[in-house]
Amino acid sequence: MNSRRTTNVNKGWLYHYLVIYSNSMKTILGADMGSQTVMRWTMPNLSVRFFFFAVTLGLLIAVNQVAAGEYEFPYRDQFAAVGVQTIELEELAANFDDYIIVDARERFEYDTIHIQGAYSIPFSSREFSRQVRALAREHNKPLVFYCNGRECSVAYRAAEYALGLGIEGAKAYDLGILPWAKARPGQTILFGQLMTERSDGLISDAQFRERTLPQSRFFELIEQTTDPLVIDVRSNRQRDGISLYFGDIHLPLDSRDEEIMAVVDQAIEENRTVFVIDDAGHQIRWVQHAFEERGLANYWFLDGGAVAVFESMR
Question: Fewer CB under 10 Å: which end of the chain, C or N?
Fold first, then answer.
């Protein structure tokens, strides 16, 4: 299992570690490759079962862009400037057969829900370039990439990368999978079935909000819970971006479904409460669908994910 257990912090103290580690900063820090500068401080009367690391200057800029986005599509103009075109839901639905649709999210998210006929090529995968090139050669149609929409930049970055590979006409459907599923249930696959063929449907926004906690309450509840299980579901690329490390387990959503479900089944068997942290609060919606489908009763999500924690430290 691709899991990673972190050291628990002593009761009564919250340890913060700020680790500055980046090849791009070695000149500023006067550090050799592979060295790191560490700043450490403590805060009394707080205790949690995790400790975290915050990272590079380049990432500060990226997070600022997300946080500052008051627009409906905060990344659109940025990627339009480098040639990434977008496609609206209505246009994609009306010309559905004219495109090859690519789900650029993690495989677990795809297996939970995806647009009918879409190919799964996670942008985080090392095989992304090869698979996208092969798909473009196989089909004489433009590629359309999608992710979790609006404040998720994955679809834009995947389309930009494809254009850089010489794949002409690559676009981003940036509204995301959830609005598609609500508008086009007959062209949406949920746990291997068309949504229109299932007796249940999407978890409502209200049900989702009931399981999503603000930072203070989330970490407070961890401390109040007997034997909590804290799971970081971010990919390695996301953790490299915002290096806030949380225990107990690193179980990225690019893991095999059976690995993730084995952890869920064990939590059910041991009657443990599960606390989940993703990158920015978008992926947890599909984790919730999987939890409910599996029968996990006790679970909570961190509102805004690691990005929100990082922002609160600034």
Answer: C
Tens of pLDDT along the chain (314 residues) come to: 443 333 333 222 222 222 222 333 222 222 332 323 222 223 333 343 333 333 333 333 344 444 433 448 999 999 999 999 999 999 999 999 999 999 999 999 999 999 999 999 999 999 999 999 999 999 989 999 999 988 899 999 999 999 999 999 999 999 999 999 999 999 999 999 999 999 888 999 999 999 999 999 999 999 999 999 999 999 887 887 666 666 678 899 988 788 899 999 999 999 999 999 999 999 999 999 999 999 999 999 999 999 898 888 87
Taking residue 258's Cβ as centre, other Cβ atoms within 10 Å add up to 9
Q: Largest Cα–Cα distance in the chain? A: 62
- Among 3.40.250.10, 3.40.50.10470, 3.50.50.60, 3.40.50.2300, name the CATH number for the domain at 13-66+204-313: 3.40.250.10
Do 13-66+204-313 and 82-197 agree at the fold level?
Answer: yes
Nearest by Cα to 49 from 186, 249, 239: 249
Overall fold of domain 82-197: Oxidized Rhodanese; domain 1 (3.40.250)
Spell out the domain ranges in the chain: 13-66+204-313, 82-197
Burial class (CB in 10 A: 0-12, 13-18, 19+), 129: middle
Cα–Cα–Cα angle for 233, 237, 239, rounded to 5 degrees: 55
User: Are 249 and 4 a contacting pair, CB within 8 Å?
Assistant: yes
What letter does residue 98 receive in the DSSP assignment?
A: G
**Residue (of 274, 199, 272, 277) closest to 238 by Cα position:** 277
